Fold this sequence. Notes:
By secondary structure, the protein is of the alpha/beta class.
Amino acid sequence: MDIGYCKGVGNKRADTLRKELNVVTALDMLTTVLPYKYTDRSKFYKIHEIVDEDTAVQIIGEVTEWHIVGVGKGQRLSATFTDGSHIIELVWFRGIQYVKLAKGVKYLLFGKPSRFNHQYNFVHPELTPMSKVTPQMMEGLEPDYNTTEGMKRIGLNSKGIRTIMASLLPEVRKGVPETIGQDILDKYHLMGRRDAILNIHFPPDTATMQKARERMKFEELFYIQLHILRQMKRRENNEGFMMPKVGWRFNRFYKELLPFELTNAQKRVIREIQGDMKSGKQMNRLLQGDVGSGKTLVALLCALLAVDNGYQACIMAPTEILANQHYATLQELLRPKDGGEPVAQVALLTGSTTQKQRGPLHEDLRAGRIHILIGTHALIEDDVQFGNLGLVIVDEQHRFGVAQRAKLWAKNVRPPHVLVMTATPIPRTLAMTVYGDLKTSILDELPPGRKPVTTLHYNIQRKASVNRFITEQISQGRQVYVVFPLIKENKELELADLQNGYNELCETFPQYRISMVHGQMKAKDKDEQMQHFVNGETQILVATTVIEVGVNVPNASVMIIENAERFGLSQLHQLRGRVGRGADQSYCLLMTKMELSKETRQRIEVMVATNDGFRIAEADLQLRGPGDLEGTQQSGLPFDLHIASLVTDGQILDIARNAAKDILDADPQLEDQYNQMYKRRLDILRQTTTYFGEIS
Ligand code: ADP
Ligand code: MG
């Protein structure tokens, strides 16, 4: 039933519910607008038992006297309430004329105590004469709902929602369609859907409430897993290009040109990828490896495998700086030291590639004369056509939108193999939901000889000692990054910050040369400034977060992050990953203002305590919640979560995944009669989810 037709709702409220909460039907309301906490209405307090400002309490008692205090706008109604042994003040600031009080009447008072002048009082309590109190009002747990400003304005505060929910329940009692099979309900001891809905809104006791919530969480996570795993099964059947051969390019590079021994992790990961590439099925693999673990080399070796088998490969990077760097690195690596022909032909295509350069480049690409194309999202444009694209590699894939990545799929008659790489470590629960349809390889080993980066926290008053440290490091031949935050809403301010910082450094260090890069610069200038730093001609690089991902200058050993309080954890970790890439001891200095919020302080503490990207990702998830995790908004969850939490419900997620797996192992495409319910439900979820995209 449309929510607008429900008792007490009407058009205006229905409109708001749809806009603010994506609620269209009564069942949407019941299953997606869920209490965030409950108040125990079976418990009665005495006034002297109040100890906490946050919990609503109920007290039975009488009003002994009241009067209006003040005049005009500052007017308030003050009453004295007693439970027989103690007294407490009740206060109303608004709607005074509607408050009807009487002496000698027993009231049920319900409200949240507040503290004023070292004493508790109640502001705007609910006061119901005992003669009007229904038995239901005094039993069970009363739900509280989150609302928005817009909803409050039309009476849809927590109480308003509660009233609507209560009026919907008689319909629910008659029954609602079940969405999970009886066998699963039995196996995992889950509540049926009808009972879960009834009890999640108005539970008689805590144990029942928890069972109801568990069932609703399970349902959400189960359908996400069912969707993801079904997609994975479907892909397993995608025909893929056969690349069984290890040819001369791979071998020559590996034996003659590779400047160092691969780490064991790199070897293992390459074997895993190679296994996919020769399987005859299309590869969809995620390569996770902390910053500095050597993903570029893995990408190059896999690209050479594709080329050896007669296919082309492309590597897409999120920034021009990174694409340029990959291009330079690969060219350098592939060129024999005696100056002969490179092992493979590499080309670069970015937004700065001129129209004039594009003509011949497009032609070489179609003719197969270019083996590996490196670029930014310029690669996905329609007029970029490959002769025979066999492998797509997406670097720092969390920086790309889903649609952008999907476009690369269509660059050959059959989808090419896809390898996406990310340095943002992903907590386990997110990996299972956001990337649950990809096979995963993990580079869990850094190249030998790396020393962990030492991270220190300084407040701005200690600038002088930081400057001394810079001098000391540069005099030992090292280079230094100084990064300023990027403020999206205010580009002028950001540039002013950066420019000031630059000027200040120039004044402080007249003896050094300093490069500067930021997002607003022309690509050519950016490249030139980067190049000076890469070549060691400048000692300091002042930058915004354009250098956040991927940049590799092993001689740089100091990363100074100004206004570190403005960065998120994974950003800080990425930035820190720019140093510690050579054999020297490296340092990351987090500069902040003096006063820090609790959350910021925790973030800084985590950074100082650990270099482990996975621990940082878990901490990030705990501190900020999954919706907010950098890089995950874009790839997104397949369906919205209303109650399950990726922070706290890891266990239910495991169970839900197993349940989904059991179903799909027996019936990969949900064709059995018995599984039609699941199939239909997935279709509905797909149509009603605010965001839905295929992840690859
Ligand atoms: P990321 O995984 O962050 O993309 P990179 O691919 O940029 O890391 O590699 C970081 C640095 O480590 C580069 O300078 C690279 O040449 C070097 N490197 C990669 N693999 C090895 C290895 N097996 N032994 C030594 N150095 C390596
Ligand atoms: Mg990289």
